[in-house]
Structures are given as structure tokens and as C-alpha cells.
Amino acid sequence: xxxxxxxxxxxxxxxxxxxxxxxxxxxxxxxxxxxxxxxxxxxxxxxxxxxxxxxxxxxxxxxxxxxxxxxxxxxxxxxxxxxxxxxxxxxxxxxxxxxxxxxxxxxxxxxxxxxxxxxxxxxxxxxxxxxxxxxxxxxxxxxxxxxxxxxxxxxxxxxxxxxxxxxxxxxxxxxxxxxxxxxxxxxxxxxxxxxxxxxxxxxxxxxxxxxxxxxxxxxxxxxxxxxxxxxxxxxxxxxxxxxxxxxxxxxxxxxxxxxxxxxxxxxxxxxxxxxxxxxxxxxxxxxxxxxxxxxx
Length: 296
Hints:
- The protein is an all-beta fold.
- Helices cover 0% and strands 43% of the residues.
- The radius of gyration is 18 Å and the shape is globular.
């Protein structure tokens, strides 16, 4: 990619132009997909380096991407999530709220995302899932002094609010009392053992399958490697993981790529807070050989 030039141009990799690329995801054939946010497009980079724009419905500031069953593509399109099927047909998922940042999907086609929901004149940040059939659930809600509001969508796509029939996740220590900025959208990754990790408030959080939530890494705004709960991040965004249990973080305002090892040690892999090769990285992906791809 031509450094420090923005624009819209397809073709050979080192001649292609982008405008504020954000999220990255990779398919089984190692085609790389990226949200070219300010060009309002999704782009595809083939293993041979050829870049082209995908045919999609009209997009506006696309951010998070996920590839699901049989190549189904999910796009976070600011106010909604667009689903594009392999045959080219598309639909808007009937969701409430404002999906935030990254998307993640499991082998059964269940999509996970962070959401900003307005109920009773208050904003709630919550972790949601939606099935391939369009059934949506709130898995965990994060807001200071808030009460638990699980719901599902009725036939008219309006929320049916009721008390949860299952155990409330243990999330009392999590306080998300301010609205998320679109300038620093959270990252999200789902591991093979169904652990969910997401970034928020200069920390990396972990959600276990039973709903328990904890800070996995990070302490306060800043920069510093070392033990997980002593290390510092500055507006971390995109996350990904490998098969050995390591996490990789686009530490956006530190202009670097960090690794959280399975033993919860934080290392800086590339970039630095000064004179970095990166400029606010916001997308990250891994290929089958462990090569890291970064969007900034």
C-alpha cells in the first residue's frame, strides 16, 4: 500500500489505495477482507496481492467484519449489521440498538457483538448474540448501577422484556457508565473454547461461557509491558488470537501491536509510542503461518 496516501484504487497490492481501513478478517483460503471505512466499502486482498472492492449494498462507515458459515459475510454498518450470503443476496439483521465495533462468529453461525441499547431513556452497553435464525439475546449487560434486562425479539421485532430464566452472569464489578466513542470502537474475539475477549476502557476483558466477566489484562491508560494486571494500554481496539491461547491487540493510541501470552504476560511485538511504523492501528488478523496483518 502506498504510504501516507489515501484514496480508492484497486489492483496490485502496493498500488492500491484505502481511506481509513479498520477491521480485518481472513477466510480459510487466506483471502483478507477489510472494512475500508471512509470509502464506505469492503475490500478483498487475495493471496496473490490483488485488491478489489466487493459488490455489496450501499454501506456507510462499515467497521466490524466476520465470516460465517459457507462464506457468509457480516458487516457492522454503523446502525445495523448487514448479512451477505454466498449467492450475493443480502439482508439487514433485525436488531435493536447500535452495534459497536468488531464482530465474532462461532462454528454454529452464532454472531457475537457489543451493542449500545437505549431502554427507558438510558443507554446500556451489552454483549449480545444473534443466531442464524435471527434470534437475539443479551448475554451480559454493563452499566453502573443498572439492572439486568434480558430480552428476546418478538415477531414484530420489538423487545419482549422479562426476567432471565437462567443464572445472571457475575458482572457486578464491570462498570461501563459512559457512552462509547466511535473513534475508538472495541475489539472482540471468540476462541475455540468459547471464551470471549473484548477491549474497553484501556483494558482487555474476558467473558467465560458461564457469563463470568473479569479484566484479563490492563490497569490504566498508558504504556507498559509485563504482568497482565500491571501492563498498560492506550485505547486498545482490534483483537485476535492463535491456537496456543495467545491474544494479539492493536494498541491504537500507543501505535503498536501487543501480545498477551497464554501465561498472561504482555509483550510489544511491533511499533512503539514514538516514531512508530503504525499510526493508530485498528485492525488485526493472523494467517495460518502466524503472520500478523495490521490495518492502520
